[in-house]
Amino acid sequence: MxxxxxxxxxxxxxxxxxxxxxxxxxxxxxxLGQIYNKRxxxxxxxxxxxxxxxxxxxxxxxxxxxxxxxxxxxPGVDHSIYLLVYGIVSLIIIAFAVTLYVFNVRDAxxxxxxxxxxxxxxxxxxxxxxxxxxxxxxxxxxxxxxLLIFTVVFPLLFAVALAFTNYDLxxxxxxxxxxxxxxxxxxxxxxxxxxxxxxxxxxxxxIIWTLVATSFQIVVGxxxxxxxxxxxxKFKKTIRTILILPWAVPGFVxxxxxxxxxxxxxxxxxxxIIIPLIGGDGLPWLTDPTYTxxxxxxxxxxxxYPFVFALFSGVxxxxxxxxxxxxxxxxxxRWQKFRNITLPHVLFxxxxxxxxxxxxxxxxxxxxxxxxEGGPAVQGQNAGGTDILISWVYKLTFDTNNYSMAAAISxxxxxxxxxxxxxxxxxxxxxxxxxNI
Length: 437
Description:
17 helices; mainly alpha; 2 domains
């Protein structure tokens, strides 16, 4: 075929298959763009799918969108929390639908361009085969994605939504309606004295608790691992077994035992140690916040160091003895060998896990609640003297039914942990290209 005829045919195809027309048709109704591109079966499938979706979900989506905007209008009839749930589910369904709709539009636009370039539309069987090959990874991961959305994303969205409502004991459906109040919960935390004082006190103790308790367990684990790994130490296996024993006992059992031992009235610490030594009634381990905080840090060090010790012990086994021998030849002291060889090697290999230790203790509910339920009570605050943010959220939820404020504090916790973990992981060498230690 002469060249001018080929160009003429290509020009005719471009006039026949306009990508913009195909895109607009697909926006108007899913499948019209595919029919315009002469992919009739695919276009009809999209049309049937869209019509079926509209007919099957219209009533539910309308109720959900109305519910999430109003949270109900008639007390005793409309249940605000149910409507909020319906609304969030509706938004998730709409997000799925929009994703498929965007795929439909992009597909029509892309196919029109390919047809203009001279590519013939595939047969129905070939289209099915090509679609299956391309979609196979998505088909296999779809069940997991759906499960993830409704077990992780949905509860997260629900908690975030509650943070902007007035859902509490006095605004509890179905008797009363819940209302959207914007950022009032966060404003109350910053302005109302009882909320402000409590939040500052609990947040400060949470930070101190996280940094001190975690750092102690890491330091103790590192020191013990370095000592046991010393070539002059005998019976290494026996010593390692003894040092890991606290890890073998369930944490809640150890916490309850310590709570009994430090009891002010009948605990073994006061009765058998403190009173015989200094007399009096012993120390107020459970009734004075300062003493309780000290005990909590010691208990967490006891519970947390075995994991760090086992982690560091494994890493130290991989440090070549030749490095230490070369350092000795150069006249390095023990401290210099530790600072320039042992410590960088250990931190490079374990930094992500150490960061997780900090984020875990930031939300370490078990030890705070099981030891003394976050107590003792503090005048002028609605949280105990040793409550951290997560245990305070628990009390707000189950003791005072202040769900919206609990959700607001939970949102703050999530942001703090996420930001901390994000920046620390990005700055960690083990998440970058491997270089020299």
